[in-house]
């Protein structure tokens, strides 16, 4: 299984591609909206790209709970292990 | 009641001849063609394999993240609007943004986005972009131009096929004369070089099939013309009340004296062969601008290089100007840049304004033998325009029977 750091790093590349945020800024404690300025439409793009990248399903209802990069990484880890 | 005077204080363009106004203008004066044989895989089965693509890819100019949120259609508009904004010196003008309007038209809108997302949908609906609607809606380009500069007066997108760009400028003139705005970014944009429009316009028999000689395909008024050449790009003009322009010491290229709008009421695709709708548009533009036929020395014709359209327009010009048409030089930029659909009238308004400003008519190329039904003085080399107060017309007509004419004059 991918490590936490591997997931964070891949997710950072997705966020960079979609929203132009430098990959080094995409750290576990960062809020997508407050710190990284990822708007709600871009967040949908990030979620869809993450689903394809990590072969997981992220239900629409779950997206609102993914406030920080760490929340998203943890969700992906659980989904991959589940 | 005297009309508010409206002047042009900034120009922006990205076209098949260049990524800005100066390169486009140089290309027009030099009689250079922007036509190319297309090389993409998808052209193979098409009857029409030529077009006039933009000389500069908008994605090479715009910031990467910005570009990916904009359809090609809006990308061109933002590129041209940034140039017009800078040219007019608006960044440091202390503008009241609630008095800044936008009128940016498109004939087709976000076509690439629409079709790419339909392809994605067929694979998996989850792959449809959450940005698809904001990118494909016809007002997307106007909206993104307004966001670029924070415009808070009206933001408009008139849609009238190939008359759209000209109609947007007419609408902008109205907004200033009605007192709704002091400054309006006005023009049109189009990014529709894609197999679907090439096939669809081709099925209408509207496009030139001169695949082996793309640079000779667009030949307005020539006996051997066989249809138009599809182009892409954008043109944006800064329209401003004369009073506002003078108060901030802006440079003034020309004045937009009047606009004329009419409809043929004849057919969805064919022009009225008598040219009466086009004639009325020109007559109204002159009347609104307090001009007469004697004032017109330069005509930027719609002249798309279709067998019927070019003749109907020539008739209309003769009817509108009468004998005074003898001293007006007719020019057809579409011979060089092709037909930019909803952007055509805007890019050609930029050319018309520069023709008055520099007092020179650009040439019309590929005119080897003038169709003897065309009664116009066409310049095949660039020609000097006279000194003194002179005026020019810019015509645009669109499928649906839309006619729009603008009357510009020297200041």
UniProtKB/TrEMBL annotation, chain A:
The cross-references to Gene3D superfamilies, in alphabetical order and at most eight, read:
ACP-like
- Keyword Lipid biosynthesis recorded: yes
Q: Which InterPro entries match?
A: ACP, ACP-like_sf, PP-bd_ACP
Q: Which GO terms describe its biological process?
A: lipid A biosynthetic process
Q: Whose protein is this, by species?
A: Kribbella caucasensis
Name of the protein this chain belongs to: Acyl carrier protein
Q: Which residues form the Carrier domain?
A: 2-80
PANTHER family noted in UniProt? ACYL CARRIER PROTEIN, CARRIER DOMAIN-CONTAINING PROTEIN
Keywords for this entry? Cytoplasm, Fatty acid biosynthesis, Fatty acid metabolism, Lipid biosynthesis, Lipid metabolism, Phosphopantetheine, Phosphoprotein
Protein family membership: Belongs to the acyl carrier protein (ACP) family.
Q: How is it modified after translation?
A: 4'-phosphopantetheine is transferred from CoA to a specific serine of apo-ACP by AcpS. This modification is essential for activity because fatty acids are bound in thioester linkage to the sulfhydryl of the prosthetic group.
Function of this protein?
Answer: Carrier of the growing fatty acid chain in fatty acid biosynthesis.
The record's NCBIfam families line, in alphabetical order, gives:
PRK00982.1-1 (NF002147), PRK00982.1-2 (NF002148), PRK00982.1-4 (NF002150)
Pathway note:
Lipid metabolism; fatty acid biosynthesis
| Entry GO CC | cytosol; membrane
Q: Where in the cell is it found?
A: Cytoplasm
Origin superkingdom: Bacteria
Any idea which residues bear O-(pantetheine 4'-phosphoryl)serine here? Answer: 40
Q: Which residues cross the membrane?
A: none
A GO molecular function annotation here is: acyl binding
From TrEMBL, chain B:
Q: Cytoplasm among the record's keywords?
A: no
Annotated pathway: Lipid metabolism; fatty acid biosynthesis
Active site per UniProt: 162 (for beta-ketoacyl synthase activity)
InterPro entries cross-referenced by the UniProt entry: 3-oxoacyl-ACP_synth-2 (IPR017568), Beta-ketoacyl_synthase (IPR000794), Ketoacyl_synth_C (IPR014031), Ketoacyl_synth_N (IPR014030), PKS_Beta-ketoAc_synthase_dom (IPR020841), Thiolase-like (IPR016039)
Domain Ketosynthase family 3 (KS3), first and last residues per copy:
3-410
Q: Per UniProt, what is one GO molecular function of this protein?
A: 3-oxoacyl-[acyl-carrier-protein] synthase activity
GO cellular component terms, A-Z = cytosol
Q: Which GO terms describe its biological process?
A: fatty acid biosynthetic process
Gene3D superfamilies noted in UniProt: 3.40.47.10
Query: Which UniProt key words apply to this protein?
Result: Acyltransferase, Fatty acid biosynthesis, Fatty acid metabolism, Lipid biosynthesis, Lipid metabolism, Transferase
Give the similarity note: Belongs to the thiolase-like superfamily. Beta-ketoacyl-ACP synthases family.
Pfam families from the UniProt entry: ketoacyl-synt, Ketoacyl-synt_C
Its EC number is: 2.3.1.179
Q: What does this protein do?
A: Involved in the type II fatty acid elongation cycle. Catalyzes the elongation of a wide range of acyl-ACP by the addition of two carbons from malonyl-ACP to an acyl acceptor. Can efficiently catalyze the conversion of palmitoleoyl-ACP (cis-hexadec-9-enoyl-ACP) to cis-vaccenoyl-ACP (cis-octadec-11-enoyl-ACP), an essential step in the thermal regulation of fatty acid composition.
Source organism per UniProt: Kribbella caucasensis
Q: Which reactions appear under catalytic activity for this entry?
A: (9Z)-hexadecenoyl-[ACP] + malonyl-[ACP] + H(+) = 3-oxo-(11Z)-octadecenoyl-[ACP] + holo-[ACP] + CO2; a fatty acyl-[ACP] + malonyl-[ACP] + H(+) = a 3-oxoacyl-[ACP] + holo-[ACP] + CO2
Please give the name of this protein.
Answer: 3-oxoacyl-[acyl-carrier-protein] synthase 2
């Amino acid at each position: 299984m991918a490590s936490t750091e591997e997931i964070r790093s891949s997710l950072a590349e997705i966020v960079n591609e979609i929203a132009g945020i430098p990959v080094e800024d995409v750290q576990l404690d960062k809020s997508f909206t407050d710190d990284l300025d990822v708007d709600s439409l871009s967040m949908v793009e990030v979620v869809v790209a993450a689903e394809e990248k990590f072969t997981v399903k992220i239900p629409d209802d779950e997206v609102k709970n993914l406030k920080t990069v760490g929340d998203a990484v943890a969700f992906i880890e659980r989904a991959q292990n589940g | 009641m005297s009309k508010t005077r409206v002047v042009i204080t900034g120009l922006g363009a990205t076209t098949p001849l260049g990524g800005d106004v100066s390169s486009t203008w140089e290309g027009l004066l030099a009689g250079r063609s922007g036509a190319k044989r297309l090389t993409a895989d998808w052209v193979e089965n098409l009857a029409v394999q030529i077009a006039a693509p933009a000389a500069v890819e908008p994605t090479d100019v715009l910031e990467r993240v910005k570009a990916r949120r904009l359809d090609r259609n809006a990308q061109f508009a933002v590129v041209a609007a940034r140039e017009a904004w800078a040219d007019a010196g608006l960044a440091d003008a202390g503008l009241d943004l609630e008095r800044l309007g936008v009128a940016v038209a498109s004939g087709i809108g976000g076509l690439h986005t629409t079709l790419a997302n339909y392809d994605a949908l067929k694979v998996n609906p989850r792959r449809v972009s959450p940005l698809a609607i904001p990118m494909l809606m016809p007002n997307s380009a106007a909206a993104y131009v307004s966001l670029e500069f924070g415009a808070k007066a009206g933001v408009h997108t008139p849609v009238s096929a190939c008359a759209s760009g000209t109609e947007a400028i007419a609408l902008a003139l109205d907004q200033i004369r009605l007192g709704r705005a002091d400054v309006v970014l006005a023009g049109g944009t189009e990014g529709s070089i894609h197999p679907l429009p090439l096939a669809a316009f081709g099925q209408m028999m509207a496009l030139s099939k001169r695949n082996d000689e793309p640079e000779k395909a667009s030949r307005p008024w020539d006996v051997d013309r066989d249809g138009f050449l599809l182009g892409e790009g954008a043109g944006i003009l800064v329209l401003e009340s004369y009073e506002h322009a003078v108060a901030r010491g802006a440079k003034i290229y020309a004045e937009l004296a009047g606009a004329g709008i009419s409809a043929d009421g004849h057919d969805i695709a064919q022009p009225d062969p008598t040219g009466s709708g086009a004639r009325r548009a020109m007559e109204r533009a002159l009347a609104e601008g307090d001009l007469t036929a004697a004032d017109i020395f330069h005509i930027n014709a719609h002249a798309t290089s279709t067998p019927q359209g070019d003749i109907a327009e020539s008739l209309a010009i003769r009817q509108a100007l009468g004998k005074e048409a003898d001293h007006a030089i007719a020019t057809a930029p579409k011979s060089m840049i092709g037909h930019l659909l909803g952007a055509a009238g805007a890019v050609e308004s930029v050319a018309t304004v520069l023709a008055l400003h520099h007092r020179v008519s650009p040439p019309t190329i590929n005119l080897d033998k003038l169709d003897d039904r065309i009664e116009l003085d066409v310049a095949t080399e660039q020609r000097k325009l006279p000194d003194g107060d002179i005026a020019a017309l810019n015509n645009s007509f669109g499928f649906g029977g839309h006619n729009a004419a603008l009357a510009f004059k020297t200041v």
